[in-house]
Amino acid sequence: MTDRVLAIDGGNSKTAVLLVDANGTVLAEARGPGAPPQTVGMKRGLDVFESLAREAAAKAGLPPDEQIATHTSAYLAGADLPREEAELTQAISDRAWSTTTVVGNDTFALLRAGTATGGVAVVCGAGINAVGVAKDGRTHRFPALGQISGDWGGGGQLGNDALWHAVRAEDGRGPRTLLLPALLKHYNASSILEVVEKIHFEELELDPHALCPLVFETAAQGDEVAQAQVDRLVEEIALLATVSLRKLDLVTEPVDVILGGGVLTNTGDTVVGPVTKQILEAAPLARVRLVDVPPVVGAALLGLDHIGAGPAAEQSLRSAYTATP
Fold it and tell me: Given CB 3.0 to 4.6 Å as the disulfide criterion, which of 113, 158, 260, 274 pairs with 234?
């Protein structure tokens, strides 16, 4: 079989699959819903991955009875601890999509998508996380298990907090905020208590990610409550990056800091500008930038690294993508 890499970027909101050959040529790609196995269950999550992998194989013209790839490079949201990575590696290996398999947290794919020389990556999408890799191979990461592991931030957090502030603004426990009328308009409701009751009785689904943009919109209107949320998010993102830089002794080195995830890539300079300023105050030589190719490309590049493909393969793969994350 010609060497091929099956790359999977399994996020919370979407899954991207890429099939490339050893020269970095894109053979096929497929996209589907987010299906983190820790959230939806191991079987269901892997069934989604397999469906997309088989779809990519069919698009590439592979016979259905042929192994899809030499190597599977799967970088997944929810693969936060070594134990989880080991369990997912075994489960994916059992599917026999390829001869070898490596599973890691999806933030490592973001980092590789942004640089070939190591550094730090911070993702802020549905959730928030960061990893760092030094040139000598040392790594730094966070458990990223939510509140129990000290995390704050991500679209889900901002959306939930927006509802919290709106409720308290309506009942008098909190300050006035434009988040209240914004959420009432969003839900087409006359009272936020009405919304809360419907959520409680499961007559209405709480989708905090849909509320996240309202935080930035109201902050742009000068709302102090919403702006405080944005300011805290900026602080958290910068803190994740600078702690990783310090742990890896990179604060005085020229180093890449890669930013990605929907909250960062879809808010213009509102977050990226202040984050960059804070990071540069701690690490003046850092090169802070948004990722410019999809993270699944990073998963594929890690797979190409694994099979020993050279720089030409990386250049070929990168050239197949525009600068839109």
Answer: 274
